[in-house]
Amino acid sequence: MDSMELEREKGITIKSAATYSSFKDHHINIIDTPGHVDFTIEVERALRVLDGAILVVCAVGGVQSQTMTVDRQMKRYNVPRLVFINKLDRAGSDPLKVTEELTSKLQQNFVLIQLPIGLEEFHTGVVDLITMKALLNEGDFGEKIREAEIPPEMVKDANEKRAILVQQLADFNDEMAMGFMEDENYQPPVALLKKTLREAVIARKIIPVMMGSAYKNKGVQQLLDGVLDYLPDPTQVQNFGLDVHTQEKIPIICDSTKPTVALAFKLEESRFGQLTYMRIYQGCLKRGDSILNVNQKQKMKVPRLIRMHSDEMEDVQEIGSGEICAMFGVDCYSGDTFTDGEFLCTMTSMHVPEPVISLSIRPEKKADANFTKALTRFQKEDPTFRVDYEPESNETLISGMGELHLDIYIERIKREYGINVITGKPKVAFRETPTSISTYEYTHKKQSGGRGQYAKMKGKIEPIRIGEEGEEDFAYSLEREFENATHGGSIPPEFIPACKKGFDDVIDEGPLIGHPVVGCKMIVNDGGYHAVDSSEIAFRLCSKFAFKRGLLDADPAILEPIMRVEVNCPAEFQNVIIPQLTRRKAIIDDSILTGDNFEVVAMVPMNNMFGYSTELRSATQGKGEFSMEYSNYERVPNDGKSNLLKSIKLNLLNKEKAKNE
Q1: Secondary structure, 3-state, 523-584
Q2: What is the pLDDT of residues 30-61, one digit of tens each?
Q3: pLDDT tens digits, one per residue of 594-636
Q4: Staple partner for 530: which of 50, 115, 387, 454, CB 3.0–4.6 Å?
Q5: Is the four-CA dihedral 252, 256, 257, 263 of positive or negative sign?
Q6: Exposure on the CB side of residue 594, measured as CA atoms within 13 A
Q7: Residue 531: how many CB atoms within 10 A of its CB?
Q8: What is the CA radius of gyration of the chain?
């Protein structure tokens, strides 16, 4: 389903693609999402609107860092899932080992419902542990399935694995539990097994593990059977909206006769204009219908409805409840809710992670209107792609989830808009935080004839932390809080919002390196005012200067993003990889040698990872690969802090020189 030229060139999925298929009298909406962590927003928005998911795991590589990330995302949206262990035809495939990895690393109840018949070049099909039949794939593309008896050499193993499956399912069904109590050799009927497994999957108590080789079409039909048998249909999923007026939860019912409720979850630019992907949660959508964008408070007509098949489109007149479609000619943002105008509610939005890397960008030809158009379009399509303008340096900054993420957008600007761009050195999303409690007292006075300005604030700056320092669960919080603790009207209530605005004005520019301040609480507990000279602007300015002074006294520290890096390469290069990472101040978490494959997991500061891709390729003859994802923020060591402050000052001096010239 990868339709972009860039996707085919790089061999990875960059953007999610939707399709619609029919299988055994059922309609299935499918969204294929990227596996690379840099494009994690595509997974977030797909999981937000889907009722079930298939977690695809490699039979050779096993559980990787992105597997764990996607598992966390599935938990966030309470999505029932199946696991499909793919590539059983590859050398070194071991689905039983991968199943053990899933259980140990993801800490969930994974249960085998299939066993492989042969591996690598001898892989011919699977044993179904529910029906206890062998399912063999035949034909040029494995499209023909022949049911047969289980091979004699596999009968014992199949019986043992089925007994484990039945015992686990007995915990979720009283009839099965009673059957075991009455007869140790009780064999529940297939219908009861499927019913119990479906209920346990929908309740997210069990995750069935299936397997095959998608490339050779082995196990794919059984996987679709698994989707129908074990994953929920739209009527079995509870969805809620928020009442626009009261913000109370309202149940959304999957019923095409009820008032329409739909969510725009993805935007895409096409040759016909903006393409908006929609999930219909309640009611139906017809071409020509009038709908209301609840978030933007705009009414509009549905000009054109289509079903997507990757990059191909099929015009339809009506889409029912529980389905996914796309619309043309609707100006909106990702996360907007649409209703019929009578039923006013909003759907909860998706989780959008913060960018971890930035770089400056400019077109080779200065006056290029398409450059701004491209950045505006990409920012609207992808919530993790941010664009900022720095007036001091006169630079445009783009921010994203990683080097590959930004490289893809730079390449798309060149290909889709014909613009050559010049990029600067990537910048890391550092943060500043107080490390101790400090008190402040600041008086803002200004007299310039006529009414002056007067405001006084007293209080303290406190750090916000998660857990106790030194303990395993300790982490630097990214929260920022403002607390009003004044008593007796020392600051009139009407000026408190102005104090909060002053705090908001200054919190995004710390005193050390000018990066946002996090893990910080500003408490105001006393102050003073003048009956004539005090005003909102006076308290707003007072709050800004008071915070700056208080933060400098709170021993501010610099925080840097730490990335969880996973490197895979042939075993012959393991003696090269560890020293490479150690030079980049990595903390090695785990290293695994499996046959001819070496894997290492490490925590590395984001600032030390630039250029690693080139170094890894040259050291492993192009055979090594790595992935990284944001883990947490950690304090920059003192030597790193002094070097960082020097480089910041040097950059400021260079910018000042360039401005004067």
Answers
A1: EEEEEECCCCCCCHHHHHHHHHHHHHHHHHCCCCEEEEEEEEEEEEEEHHHHHHHHHHHHHC
A2: 888 887 777 778 888 888 888 999 999 999 88
A3: 777 788 999 999 888 887 877 887 888 777 878 778 888 999 8
A4: 454
A5: positive
A6: 19
A7: 7
A8: 29
